[in-house]
């Protein structure tokens, strides 16, 4: 007869154990979300080759740990854009967070504030930037370039007035990537979730379901400017004294142009595999961008980060920090603000362990590590 398995003292009957890693949160989120919402946040563009490549590339980065360094417990604090944060991590901009939980963006922003890391608020947030900024912590505003230049100027003014600490402009969305899961699901944003930073009625197309159509793509096609140029970035640089982050860089030549335009940081990102399918993994493009900017601005890694070891990998490849996206939506979906706080605490523990095991006293030491590419 099989031996009975008794609950451990810290896991009472009927209570699910806490996640051992951030990846565990994916199934918890999938269990509570409608299929079409799960596909919207989980999916990529096209055949999702770039989406898959992001994870493969990070898994192929082997970090060479140092030994006999006298490190007992590493410090995780790091500076990003001139401010000290609890770890070299920011919560990536992600649209329509009330899709996954009624608390939405303020809950995730508050969790980031409690964890001591920046929260990047999307232009397409489902709560106005003023409410997000009031939730606490360092908030960066992410700007999508809109056809209406007056509306762009208004968003900048609102971000300044709300006390945002930085401005991150996304440059890899002239049009929305063809996200086949959304097309197959005829996905539309439900009426109770709106693009709250836009004037009333500007997101009507996002709610208009039609067979074989992504309503999100139809909406962004109407409101996003498709032909943004470096001259527009020059205009933006002239409109703000905030640190300027250029998100969506993969080619080192574009990184050099961003530095010339006055960028304080660039984010090496393929939009989580949601734009050009066939673009390289962000981790694969990172070393070339780091070499191109040659210390003239900060470099952040986005796309595919799933835990503390990935933060270490990003630093070892030359990044100053990373953006973490989908795992934070999973945590929000599964547990609201409390879930997000727990996820960020887990990430901090994972990162501290990774630093210590690599013989690094702090994130700066991690940037001196060497890596190997393994099959």
From TrEMBL:
Ranked from the top, the taxonomy reads: Bacteria, Bacillati, Actinomycetota, Actinomycetes, Micromonosporales
Binding sites annotated in the UniProt record for glyoxylate: 144, 179, 271, 274
Q: What GO molecular function annotation could you give as one example from this UniProt entry?
A: oxidoreductase activity, acting on CH-OH group of donors
Q: Where does FMN bind?
A: 93-95, 122, 142, 170, 247, 269, 302-306, 325-326
Decide whether keyword Transmembrane is in the record.
no
The family this protein is said to belong to: Belongs to the FMN-dependent alpha-hydroxy acid dehydrogenase family.
Catalytic-site annotation from UniProt: 271 (proton acceptor)
CDD domains in UniProt? alpha_hydroxyacid_oxid_FMN (cd02809)
Q: Which organism is it from?
A: Micromonospora deserti
> What does this protein need as cofactor?
FMN
The protein depicted here goes by the name Alpha-hydroxy-acid oxidizing enzyme
UniProt keywords (A-Z) are:
Flavoprotein, FMN, Oxidoreductase
FMN hydroxy acid dehydrogenase domain residues are 14-375
Name the coiled-coil region(s): none
| Gene3D superfamilies assigned | Aldolase class I (3.20.20.70)
């Amino acid at each position: 007869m099989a031996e009975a398995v008794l609950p451990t003292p810290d896991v009472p009957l009927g209570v699910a154990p806490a996640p051992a890693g951030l990846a565990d949160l994916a199934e918890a989120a999938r269990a509570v979300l409608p299929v079409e919402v799960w596909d919207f946040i989980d999916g990529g563009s096209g055949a999702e080759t770039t989406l898959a490549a992001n994870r493969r590339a990070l898994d192929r980065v082997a970090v060479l740990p140092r030994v006999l360094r006298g490190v007992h417990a590493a410090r995780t604090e790091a500076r990003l854009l001139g401010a000290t944060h609890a770890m070299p991590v920011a919560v990536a901009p992600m649209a329509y967070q009330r899709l996954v939980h009624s608390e939405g963006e303020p809950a995730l922003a508050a969790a980031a504030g409690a964890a001591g890391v920046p929260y990047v608020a999307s232009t397409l947030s489902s709560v106005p930037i003023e409410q997000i900024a009031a939730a606490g912590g360092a908030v960066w505003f992410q700007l999508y370039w809109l056809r209406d230049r007056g509306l762009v100027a208004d968003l900048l003014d609102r971000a300044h007035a709300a006390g945002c600490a930085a401005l991150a402009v996304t440059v890899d969305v002239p049009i929305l990537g063809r996200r086949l899961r959304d097309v197959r699901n005829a996905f539309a944003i439900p009426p109770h979730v709106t693009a709250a930073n836009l004037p009333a009625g500007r997101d009507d197309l996002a709610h208009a379901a039609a067979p074989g159509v992504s309503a999100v793509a139809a909406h962004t096609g109407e409101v996003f400017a498709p032909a943004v140029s470096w001259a527009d970035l020059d205009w933006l640089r002239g409109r703000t004294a905030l640190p300027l982050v250029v998100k969506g860089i993969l080619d080192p030549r574009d990184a050099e142009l961003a530095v010339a335009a006055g960028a304080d940081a660039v984010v090496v990102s393929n939009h989580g595999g949601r734009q050009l399918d066939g673009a390289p993994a962000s981790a694969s493009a990172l070393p070339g961008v780091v070499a191109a900017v040659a210390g003239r601005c900060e470099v952040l890694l986005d796309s595919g980060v799933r835990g503390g070891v990935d933060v270490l990998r990003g630093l070892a490849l030359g990044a100053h920090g990373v953006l973490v996206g989908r795992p934070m939506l999973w945590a929000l979906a599964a547990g609201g603000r409390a879930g997000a706080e727990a996820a960020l605490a887990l990430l901090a523990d994972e990162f501290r362990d990774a630093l210590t095991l690599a013989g690094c006293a702090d994130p700066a030491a991690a940037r001196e590590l060497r890596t190997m590419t393994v099959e």
